[in-house]
Specification:
The complex is a heterodimer of chains A (about 325) and B (about 650). Chain A has eight helices and eleven strands. By secondary structure, chain A is an alpha/beta fold. In chain A, a hairpin with a 2-residue loop joins strand 8 and strand 9. Chain B is built from 18 helices and 28 strands. The chains are: A alpha/beta (about 325), B alpha/beta (about 650). Strand 1 of chain A pairs antiparallel with strand 6 of chain B.
């Protein structure tokens, strides 16, 4: 080693031997981000999508403002095709904590009868998620919106800032992002513009599960293995959550021991065969996983670069 | 997550041990930098691949992408793993910083893959601001380039202490030891002028994996570590816990009368219950009553933790203040020197107002002097009138109110700031504070017994600054002159500051470049402010073409004492009138930097008064102005 100055090869021993663990550091960073938004924006909102990342986000928001409640409302963009268990869990959590929940549904899409089975995942996601989200943000005039996206999920997400600027049309311009130096966030926006904020940017899927385990965070039971009625379609196991899913010739519903690694609209989310029925088993399974979590998402496969395209249009 | 985390067999998996192992791991944040095509993205792709981070579905996608966009023929192109934007894959370059995560049995890593193109230098600085170590890549065939030096200097200025010099594509020079040694020696010579603690040169081929995670059979002459071995062993500077306590106050949490908590992330040092802290801005002290880490009471907390502190006394503390150790306080000043990296395509101009943001504080700021620019190829100091995009300079800055800070060399959290454009809100620069300026510390505002209220009361009027802006020849001076006559006749105390007249005296040293126009306005603003303070009605007739400077003028005056009057005459009409013959000369090219022609005029967006002069008589407009002022502003002060 060519030292310009003598430098210790081992870490200098701090006189105060309190080391933060990796999860401690991630938690501190997320709490910092929550507080920064609360201190600098006039009308923030937290997008609550009911999945595991939202559960962690909710937990961190409560820690950040303890003993006060988080000083912002929660918004769920309901596509009307979410798993029934997700909706039940959502309502139970909001009641338990006494939070304000805003639910937004794109009524235009409902009137047009948008249906992922008929119109395909692309149109469904655009109308019932992206457009619905833009409608809700405009309706309430939110200037900052928290989301649970992580950089390890997908290539275009790994390029995104923690404080991600959106113009008045909610569009993301990936080639023209504000430099994000240190922990100094530029929170200034003009009227109509907004910032999407991602406190979990630096978390990985494994970090999320370890944190859920360590902090005993409640999650939707769909993440745990159970015998469920599924249909095999286009190489995916789709849980037939209600009668709106019509069986095609040759298809049959069978009970299989399955669980979900990620949750979205039930027709677009594949289950995995698994016997992991508690958190420890899930973490163990993760360590031997050979596919990424987004493999279970139909919408990511629509076309190359599809996530980036959706994000430019205003998707989270 | 990596296969390295995998237990030997599932039967032996012990969850408690696993968590303990995970928690024991230290975290190294590093970035890759160097010139374009030196192989930065390929190296990261290789690290992710060799540490088995790539899932099967991602590998399948990579193989598809490689045959479509790849630059390696039939081979897998690892750069496509990290170049996540469509434009990047199409152009085969990295545009923006990407963050990736991987771990080994020894450590966790966050890596920032940053662009090599000069036009994206700001994205490289973004990645460097949070990194402990930088991998500087050099193409063995091309050696050290200007961009290699530029990135190294930025890394050094941003406080990175450790460099791994990756001499890449060594396979393309037949694994030649002499090439490696020549490049290493040249780099070490250059780097000795920078503030790195260590530089580790490693010869490698990212594309083929030599000396990345496995030792190369083709370079038996190289005795040193592989890149991964070096990353696992590199020192992490973690002495922040031993430095004086600093808590930049981010958020005041006050859910009820009994709870008033000051929240933030500890920048350095440690805090215990019972300890005496001082609020830097007021100098008031109190003792710590409770320490909350998240939602849990704790007897102490250290650097890096996000905490809420409760104090024993009710003292004035708000966001932007810094709670600090009573015996080692930060600086509190409104003038200081800093090194600035400029990001914006509009240059940094001394005198122009910007917004300065520290981690939690914000203040209006101007660069009062650009001491010198740093030549990033030679590290030499050069004289400069402005900083263009991607340039680095040393500046004196002046904030409107004092801010609390440390020297960046002492504290990377409390010594840093960003600059934000007042109009577009873009992040236009980043700065590292070197030291406060003595004049700020020693010159205190002298309290005077006769104040502005008494000055105004004696004149039986409310002071106001009437700011006339518009093109040359628009009629500003004519209107201002007539209005002053009218006010004077009515017994008002007035003074008219005229752009041309001021340039004969106070501002005779200034020309018409953007830098000089900004300084021209700054001086007039200060003069107008003193006159308003003296109780006068001040009429300012200046082209004042830039919104930013008019905004600064507004903010330097008392609330409600600034009236912006837009004298709106179209360019063609001004050129037709041409009272001083200037348009004729400018249109001939005899006058450069002429407003409206080759120098921009930014029209006011919301002036208090908008005078459209076409087809109107000056006397008529002045009567209208006079009535409006009497109704809204110049009433006798009842006090």
């Amino acid at each position: 080693m060519s030292h310009l100055q003598p430098s210790p090869t081992t870490m200098p021993q701090s006189q105060h031997n309190i080391r933060q663990s990796h999860l401690d550091r991630l938690e501190a960073e997320a709490i910092h981000i929550f507080r920064e938004v609360a201190a600098t924006f006039s009308k923030p909102v937290m997008l609550y999508s009911v999945g595991k990342d939202s559960s962690v986000l909710l937990h961190l928001a409560m820690k950040a403002f303890y003993p006060a409640k988080p000083p912002f409302p929660f918004l769920h963009v309901d596509t009307t095709w979410k798993f029934r268990e997700m909706i039940a869990f959502r309502d139970a959590m909001m009641t338990l904590h006494g939070f304000d929940l805003l639910v937004h549904i794109n009524e235009d899409g409902v009137r047009e009868g948008i249906n992922p089975f008929v119109h395909g995942s692309n149109t469904h996601t655009h109308v019932m998620k992206t457009v619905a989200l833009r409608q809700a943000l405009d309706k309430y005039g939110f200037d900052a919106a928290f989301g649970g996206a992580r950089r390890d999920e997908e290539k275009s997400r790994s390029k995104e800032r923690i404080f991600s600027f959106r113009n008045a049309n909610h569009a993301w311009d990936p080639k023209n992002q504000r430099p994000e130096m240190w922990k100094i966030y530029n929170t200034r926006v003009a009227a109509g513009e907004s910032i999407r904020v991602f406190p979990l940017s630096n978390w990985t899927e494994l970090d999320i599960w370890q944190y859920i385990l360590l902090e005993e965070i409640p999650i939707v039971p769909l993440y745990f293995a159970k015998l469920r009625p599924v249909v095999e379609r286009a190489g995916m196991l789709i849980l037939r959550d209600d009668e709106r899913m019509e069986l095609l010739p040759g298809e049959a519903v069978e009970d299989r021991l399955v669980r979900f690694r990620t949750l979205g609209c039930y027709p677009l989310t594949g289950a995995i065969e698994s016997d992991a029925c508690d958190l420890q088993a899930i973490v163990r399974e993760m360590l031997t996983a050979r596919t990424s979590e987004r493999q279970g998402r139909v919408i990511d496969k629509d076309e190359a670069g599809s996530m980036e395209k959706k994000k430019r249009e205003g998707y989270f | 997550m990596t296969r390295h985390d995998l237990p030997v067999s599932a039967a032996l998996f012990d969850y408690g041990d696993f968590i303990a192992d995970q928690n024991e791991k230290s975290l190294l944040r590093f970035l890759t930098c160097g010139s374009v095509d030196d192989g930065k993205s390929t190296l990261i792709g290789r690290l992710l691949y060799d540490t088995k981070l790539i899932f099967e579905d991602q590998l399948a996608a990579l193989e598809r992408d490689s045959s479509k966009h790849g630059t390696n023929g039939a081979d897998i192109d690892f750069a496509l793993l990290v170049d996540g934007l469509e434009a990047e894959r199409e152009q085969g370059i990295t545009i923006d910083v990407a963050y990736r995560f991987f771990s080994t049995p020894k450590r966790k890593f966050i890596v920032a893959d940053t662009p090599g193109h000069e036009q994206y230098t700001r994205n490289m600085a973004t990645g460097a601001s949070t990194a402990d170590l930088a991998i500087v890549l050099v193409d063995a065939r091309r050696g050290i380039l200007q961009q290699t030096r530029r990135h190294s200097i930025i890394a050094s200025l941003l406080g990175i202490r450790h460099i791994a010099l990756a001499v890449n594509k060594i396979d393309l020079v037949d694994f030649d030891r002499q090439v490696f040694e020549r490049i290493s020696a040249e780099y070490l010579g250059f780097a000795s002028g920078l503030s790195f603690a260590s530089v580790e040169p490693i010869p490698m081929s990212a594309r083929h994996g030599d000396n990345v995670t496995r030792r190369s059979d083709d370079m038996r002459w190289y005795p040193g570590p592989t890149l991964l071995e070096h990353l696992e062993a590199a020192a992490i500077d973690c002495d922040t816990a031993d430095k004086p306590f600093r808590l930049p106050v981010q958020y005041v949490n006050r859910p009820n009368q009994d709870f008033r908590g000051f929240s933030g992330t500890i920048a350095s040092g440690l805090v215990t219950t019972g300890q005496t802290l001082v609020a830097t801005k007021s100098g008031r002290r109190s003792r710590v009553k409770r320490v909350l880490v998240g939602a849990t009471d704790s007897p102490l907390a250290v650097a890096g933790q996000s905490v809420t502190l409760l104090l024993e006394d009710e003292i004035e503390i708000s966001r932007g203040d810094v709670l600090s150790a009573a015996d080692a306080r930060p600086e509190l000043a409104d003038q200081f020197q800093a090194t600035i990296v400029w990001f914006d395509d509009k240059p940094l101009l001394p005198g122009r107002p910007y917004i300065l943001r520290t981690e939690t504080d914000q203040a209006g700021v101007t660069v009062t002097a650009l001491k010198h620019r740093i030549n990033v190829a030679s590290f030499a100091k050069e004289a400069a009138a402005c900083l263009d995009m991607n340039e680095i300079g040393v500046c004196d800055l002046s904030t409107q109110v004092p801010i609390a800070f440390d020297r960046y060399g002492d504290n990377r959290v409390t010594g840093a700031f960003i600059l934000v454009d007042r109009m577009t809100n873009a992040t236009v620069g980043a700065g590292m504070i070197s030291h406060p300026l003595r004049r700020a510390r020693n010159i205190h505002w002298q309290k005077l017994d006769v104040d502005r209220r008494q000055h105004a009361a004696q004149k039986h009027q409310k002071p106001v600054v009437l700011w006339f802006t518009g093109l040359s020849g628009s009629g500003k001076s004519t209107i201002a002159n007539l209005l002053e006559k009218k006010l004077n006749a009515a017994g008002r105390h007035t003074y008219l500051l005229d752009g041309d007249n001021i340039r004969h005296g106070l501002n005779r040293d200034l020309g018409f470049t953007d830098e000089d126009r900004v300084e021209n306005i700054r001086r007039v603003v200060e003069v107008a402010r003193l006159m308003a303070d003296a109780g006068l009605i001040v009429l300012v007739s200046f082209i004042s073409p830039f919104r930013a400077e008019r905004q600064m003028a507004r903010e330097r005056m008392q609330e409600g004492e600034f009236v912006e009057i837009f004298v709106d005459t179209p360019f063609e009409e001004c050129a037709r009138r041409d009272p001083k013959g200037l348009y004729a000369q400018a249109l001939n090219g005899a006058i450069k930097n002429f407003t409206g022609l080759d120098s921009p005029y930014e029209a006011p967006e919301q002036p208090e008064l908008h005078l459209q002069t076409l087809g109107k008589d000056a006397e008529e407009m002045v009567d209208e102005l006079d009535r409006w002022l009497n109704q809204n502003y110049i009433v006798a002060d009842p006090a």
